[in-house]
User: Fold Peptidase M14 domain-containing protein from Pyrocoelia pectoralis.
Amino acid sequence: MILTRFAIISIGVLLMSSRVQLKLDTPGEIRFDQYLRYQDIQDYLDRLNRIYKGFVVVENFGLSVENRNLTSIKISYGENPKKPLIFIDAGIHAREWIGPAQALYVIHRLVENPVESLLVRNVDWLIVPLVNPDGYEYSHTVDRLWRKNRTKGKICDGVDLNRNFDFQWLQIGASRSECSNNYAGTRPFSEPESSALSKLIAEKAERIKMYLSFHAAAQCILYPWGYTTDLPDNGEELHELGQNLTDAIYKVNSTQYKVGSSANILYTDSGTSRDWAYAVANIKLAYTIEIKGFADSLFNRRRGGRFDIPPEDILSVVSEMFEGIKMLHSYVEPKHITSENHYDVLMKKMRRIFFFTT
Ligand SMILES: [Zn+2]
Assistant:
């Protein structure tokens, strides 16, 4: 009897490990019942770039420490200097696998689901689904709980990219010790990943009206600041919009997210991409989205603890958050739209020119 139970457990473990090893059937395929690896993500973006020419532009904007591509995807019906842009990044922290899955889900819905085309009519999207590819791969192959990038250190490797941005660097909630999970690096933007991401944002900063950075797994919506409990100038707007976002998420499966400034409701931090985007790139709607985690307990321990949302639950987590993203879009669009960049007004003008209609 004991032997039989042992055999069943062994087969289960074997099946689980073969599932982890499972390769995607077709290169470029997207799915939300397993976590995609770096190459799978690149293949998917390449496929979209081939199929949706003119609608999406996939570009490499830098290289990681281990020479992997840092890749962005722009989704737009036509750029216009006055058109608002929503910027999203994910995977700054390696072990937070649900972040890249969430970014890929947003990309998938915006590009491949015609129902969502309204979300792209008057607003452009620029999305980086994997900021830290080296750390992400390392968390798949060696250490499931790896958080930093893979810069070689004297004693310990890796820099926390989300403590490496050039705003209030190393002030609080960050470490100068190489072996710390919050190691801020030798200087601001010492790391190729954070430096390249900041340049990409800075290039389009005037058009970026909202900055979202996907993390896990504190289940809360964080706005600036991290380095002080004081609130930014538009703290009220950030809080109210954050609450509307949590309401939209709650409506789907009754999942309750908290809202507040980082230092007030989670912890102090400095040198983060969110505070930098707000203060230096001047993006006044800047949020860290801490996606929900796995309810870890002594009875249901998983390898990655709270970061290990089971693959079969990915879709429900990312699709409820997508309802929140749609709500955020519905706030940005009317706030920043003018007759010069309004899709319907432009179409009317075109019709007038080509068909002499009024
Ligand atoms: Zn994180």
Remarks:
- The chain has one domain: 22-355.
